[in-house]
Every structure is written in C-alpha cells, then in structure tokens.
Amino acid sequence: MATAAPGKTAESADEGQGGDPGPGGIWRPATAGVIAAFVGFASSFAVVLEGLTEVGASHAQAASALLALSVAMGVCAIFLSLRSRLPISIAWSTPGAALLAGSTVPHGGFPVAVGAFLITGALIVVSGLWRPLGRWVSAIPAPLANAMLAGILLPLCLAPAEAVHSDPAIGLAVVLTWAVVGSVRKLYAVPAAVVVAVVLIATTTHIRTDTLGPMWPHPVLVAPHFTFAAAIGIALPLYVVTMASQNIPGIAVLGANGYHPQPGPLFGWTGVFSLLSAPFGGHAVNLAAITAALCAGDEAGPDRARRYRAAATAGGVYILLGLVASAAVALVNAAPPHIIEAVAGLALLGALANSLTAAMADPGQREAAVVTVVVTVSGVTFFGVSGAFWGLLAGGALYGVRHWQSRRAAGDGSGGGAGPGAAAPGPVADPSLPEPDRS
After folding, report:
1. CA dist., res. 15 & res. 85, Å (int)
2. Average pLDDT over residues 190-213
3. Do the bridges between strand 259-260 and strand 90-92 make them parallel or antiparallel, or are there none, so unpaired?
4. What is the pLDDT of residues 390-438, one digit of tens each?
5. In what helix (H) or strand (E) does residue 220 lie, and over which residues does it extend?
6. Are 340 and 332 in contact (CB under 8 A)?
7. Cross-strand bridge partners of residue 3
C-alpha cells in the first residue's frame, strides 16, 4: 500500500476552513504540472529525436515515436496518480535517448531498434514482477553505472562548443541564454535556450515548407525485428540506464518528498506503457526524476494529499504536447548543423556532472569507473554490440579483479605476521575521516 508522510500541521494561507483548498491550493498543483511537463518536454525532446534518428528512424517515424511517447507518458502519469493518489510523474528515458544518440543504425535498420525497445519494455515489466531482476540491477556498482552513463553523455555534451564554432551567432546566443537564465533559475535554463533557438532558427533560416511534411503527427506502426546483437547492444544498456538513472532515482525523489509507494508496481506499469509505445517507435518511458520534484515538492502546493493533481495535470499536458511532434521534427530538420545538438548537449550537462561525480566519488572504484568511461566513449563495437555494453563489461571485470585482490590482501593480513612474501602495507585510513560516499 502506498503511503504519504503527514504534511505540516500549521495552517497554510492557501488552505481554507476545514482543509478545503483556497484559490492557491487549487491552482498551484495545476500550475506545477504544466511547468513540469513543459520543462520535461522542451529540455529533452531534441535528445530523443537525435537518438531515434541515429538508430534509423525516418522523419515520419521519429514524429510517430515522439507522439507515442508523449501519449504513453501522459496516460501512465494520469492513471498511476489517480489510482494511487500520489504524485507519480512519468517521463521518457532521456539517458536512454542519449544512449541511442551515441549509437549507429543497427544492421536491419529501425525495425531492429524497435525490436530492442520491446525487449527493454519487457525487462522493465519483469523488474516490477520479479524482484530478483530489480535487485540485480541495483547490485550493479553505482560508480560503474554512472561511469557508463557519463561515457554515453560526454560526446553529446561537446555539441555546444561545436555549435559555437560552426555558427557563432546562433550558437553563442543559445549558450549565453542558457548561462544567464541558469544563473537565476536553473530549472528554466534549457527551456529558455530552446525558445531562443526556435526564434533564431525561424528568423534567420529559410525553411522550405514543401520539405516539412505533414504538421499533424500520424502514428506509424513499425514491424519489429529481433536480433541478438541489438538485444545485447541496445536493449540491455537501454534497460540498465533507464532503471539506474530514472526509475530508481524517481523512487528516491518521491521518498525525499514524503511519499513511499511500492516500487514494483510502478516499474511494471512503466514497462507496460513502454511496450505499448514501442511498436510506434517509442524507446522507453519511466519514472521522472528531475521534474518529479516539481510535482511532489512544495511547488505543487502545501497540501501533500492534493499534489497528485500536479502529476495528473502534467500527464494531460504531455498528451497535448505530443500533438506538436511533427512540428518539433520539422524544427530539427530546418535547424542549422549542431544547433539542436547544442540544445541537447546543454540539457545533458547537469546529468554528465552528476554521473561523473558519482562515478569518481569512491577512490577504491575510481580506476574501474575510468575504464568504463573510456571504453564507452570510444564507441568500439564487437559483433555488432555497442560500446556502452563493453564499457560496463570492461569496468565490471576490473572492478571484480580489484575487489578480489583487496579481499585476498585482507585475508592474508588477518593471518598473523607478515612472511617473506607478504606485500608491503598500503596507506592506512585515518579513522577520524568520514567514510567515502558509496551511494
């Protein structure tokens, strides 16, 4: 049973007699939901479109996928929020889209990618139904999972610099807008950069309307094709980054705001909606992390029991935003080189900083984390399997060797005096220092 922590006992100015909401109590959840949906969509749709295009989606298929993801997110958020009376915010997998953006078109084209999306959705469903699988994902050392994500994000975060070099006027305007707005309110930095990019593209670029295609999105059904290489190289890394970077942090955000739902059913339902969107090109939907704080925190009003309305409102807005999917694709196609990629890179800088910090926090695991980053960034492929999988595998292998060596050294040291073949003692930890963060 999902439970919420009790709210503050003090009366709020936004609440009326008997707990009835005043005008602020009615509108604040709705306003927070609208802002959360706009921020979530505007700050990452470019990443999603780039990822879909890189794995072979046509313009029509990319618009269909954006529509399918938006509808799946919206319906899932409305359903779970109204069902649980908790602010369950849903988002598409931005780290997963970043993974796709760093990939290449699989052998067999977009149908192979769609097959991988279906496998990912099925794995997420199984994670909700079968606890051992969820525990296995949680058992992946956090530094390695974050290092893999950092390796995926790093090439994408170079795009702002490339945009400034290739188109200084627009590139600098977008980057400076992001920096200035971010210094005042970080949450709105990327949406502001998107608005500036749209205005500059519309006013400085000649857009041929005959090449834009229909402005109203049409669902495009893609028959999936399943291959072993795509299952290992796309589906498995997509599943890991979605669970480790979205679903598990999403539960943590809810807990930090006093809401404690059972994770299994939430994972299962996001997997179901991922499966429903996949045949139309959607890669994955999951619990929101960053925008979840808008719907679950104080921005959604003083009454915790009514904050679920913010998440439900966000769901409705996501559905409406899905109707502009074709316009979003047209904007991306009309933009000068690197400009949309620059917006995507700016949107991912915070995630890159967080993942690098978490990956390098523990000195004992830093070497394995660096190996994971380097192999992932290299983009090497073997047997058609992408570098993200090999990065995690290489880092995991080194992590296992170092862990075995440390346990063996500890066992030898506990056996008494040092013999002739004993290793020289390493540095001794100062017990007065705090333990390293292993979260």
Report:
1. 19
2. 75
3. unpaired
4. 888 899 899 989 888 888 887 776 554 444 444 444 443 443 333 433 3
5. none
6. yes
7. 260
Residue 52: the pLDDT is 95
Amino acid residing at 221: L
Cβ within 8 Å of residue 309, ≥6 positions away:
29, 30, 33, 81, 300
Q: Which residue has the higher pLDDT, 298 or 229?
A: 229
pLDDT in tens, 313-356: 999 999 999 988 887 777 777 777 678 778 878 877 887 888 89
At 438, which helix (H) or strand (E)? Answer: none
3-state secondary structure of 385: strand
User: Stretch 260-285: mean pLDDT, rounded?
Assistant: 95
On average, the pLDDT of the chain sits at 81
Task: Determine the residue type at 8.
Answer: K
Q: What is the pLDDT of residues 332-341, one digit of tens each?
A: 777 776 787 7
Provide the token pair at 228.
């072993």
- Whether the CB-CB separation of 224 and 114 falls below 8 Å is answered with yes
Contact 232, 119 (CB under 8 A): no
Domain locations along the chain: 23-215+224-361
Place of tokens 């769901």: 315
pLDDT at 3: 47
The count of other CB atoms within 10 Å of the CB of residue 61 is 22
CA count, 13 A, side-chain hemisphere, 324:
11
CB 189 within 8 A of CB 43: no
Distance of alpha carbon 117 from alpha carbon 231, whole angstroms: 9
Separation CA 220–CA 317 (nearest Å): 22
